[in-house]
Amino acid sequence: MIEPLHGRTAALDVAFHLHSQTNPQQLQSQGPAVIERGEGPRVFDSTGKEYIDGMSGLWCASLGFGNKRLAEVIYEQSRRIGYYHTFFSRTSHEVSLLAEELANRSLIENAHVYFATSGSEANETMVKLSWVYHTVRGNPGKRKVISRRKSFHGSTIAAASMCGLETMHREFALPIPGFVYVSFPDMYRGMNEGETPEQYTDRLASELEQLILREGADTIAAFIAEPVMAGAGVVAPPQDYFRKIKAILDKYDILLLDDEIVTGFGRTGNWFGRQTTDMQPHMMALAKGLTSSYFPMSAVVMMPEIYEAVAAFNKSGSFFGHGFTNSGHPVGAAVALECLKIYDDMDIVPHVRAMGDRLKSHLREIATGSSIVGDVRGVGLMFGIELVENKDTKAPFAPSFGAGFKYDAFAVDNGLVVRATGDCAILSPPLIITENDVDQIAERFGKALKQFETSIGR
User: Nearest Cα to 101, choosing from 293, 277, 291, 281?
Assistant: First the structure.
């Protein structure tokens, strides 16, 4: 039954709206949460209740909600030119400037940039560019993509096929052929007893090589990975993981694709997650923090060899056969340029490191006094707090119990938005948070945790 307080908006929503990542029956019985406005790291629902959005929306509102500088840029750019495209050699001043900025910041020498609208589109673009690259080099059979279990790379057909999540596959008979998976580097649950991080990464590298040999190196185009796995529960690899993975990939002429959609633009305490994890990719997919999601925009930054392959493929005068209506949207480009200026004005990297250290300290203190927090992990301003039945043995709660979602309900009651994935509660707050915001996040997180523990007799 929808509460009358939600009013007409909720009734219309239930009647006409199919939501992403939502149970339809639950929506029909409970109605939606109607979010009416935002201010800094906080949002307010239709009842007037205030929440600290500890997830930056969907990992994306890095500059919070209601940012006046971004709103003014959207207005002014829309007045100047509200839309144009980048097909047939067209461009705009803002798009050209943004391409230069991203290429220069990317750590990829002599890079080129391709613009799209979403992270899914950016990741699929990297796959298509990988196919062109290998075809031009005389290896058109190199088509398969290796991903990692529990990874998330998007919702379109190929992007969802790259996901290592059954929930992204089951309704749609995915993955399509050509996508294969290896283990992900989970030091909390993946390491064997007595195994060192170095031995663990050796084992994961060996698993990758065995998969390549089994599938055939002449059939594999690319390996895609997030520097830090967001949806898997904020899983950061051992420091030498990507160095060992890259050595295997180079041995078999397989491209390394960097999904920076969550981890880019300061989130991990560096400009890009690739710096945090010493990743050396051939291409990078950017989105979310690129515009703080004030405008839907994404980008692929590529090594010159990738661009040159596209040019070589079309040397006869044909056109690059790829594109989206809103690729290189002038309003999105203007917003992205202003975001980069704001990040620079904030001196974003030291700020994220300081706020992240403060929040991590709070979370570890909370974990010490909790009977059900098994692990607190994270980098920069993204953290995974794993809830367990038994801290000593790491025994998880029964999947049917739904510990993560039960905790999430207590967090919402206490005015804190988290992300429950399995039995992991995730925090990835806006990068603009202050010391006071950090302290309030920790206070609300701890209060909700105690209420949850009491509810299960702990």
Answer: 291
Give the mean pLDDT of 333-340: 98
Quick one: which of 265, 193, 261, 284 has its CA closest to 430? 265
In this structure, what token pair is assigned to residue 199? 């031995």
**In which residue are the tokens 């794993």 written?**
386
Whether 286 contacts 103, CB under 8 Å: no
pLDDT in tens, 18-58: 999 999 999 999 999 999 999 999 999 999 999 999 999 99
Q: How far is residue 213's CA from residue 115's CA, in Å, rounded to a whole number?
A: 34
Sequence-separated (6 or more) residues with CB below 8 Å from residue 210 = none
pTM above 0.90, yes or no: yes
Angle between the 435-455 and 403-413 helix axes, to the nearest 10 degrees?
Answer: 120
The span from the CA of 411 to the CA of 9, in Å, is 24
> Residue 316 above 80 pLDDT?
yes
With vertex at residue 425, the alpha carbon angle to CA 422 and CA 430, rounded to the nearest 5 degrees, is 130
pLDDT at 5: 46
Q: What are phi and psi of 365, to 5 degrees?
A: -65, -40
The predicted pLDDT at position 6 comes to: 55
Contact of 67 with 295, CB cutoff 8 Å: no
Query: How far, in Å, are 363, 387, 400, 415 from residue 370 at the CA level?
Result: 10, 10, 22, 20
How far, in Å, CA of 210 to CA of 193, rounded? Answer: 23
Report in angstroms the alpha-carbon separations of 391 from 62, 223, 249, 371. Answer: 33, 34, 37, 7
Q: What is the mean pLDDT of residues 189-198?
A: 96
Sheet containing 42-45, strands listed edge to edge, beginning at the edge strand earlier in sequence:
35-39, 42-45, 50-53, 416-417
**pLDDT at position 284 over 70:** yes
* Backbone φ and ψ of 80, nearest 5°: -75, -50
Token pair, residue 219, equals 């059939």
Give the pLDDT score at 8.
86
Token pair for 81 = 């030119």
Q: By C-alpha distance, which of 280, 283, 286, 240 is closest to 266?
A: 286
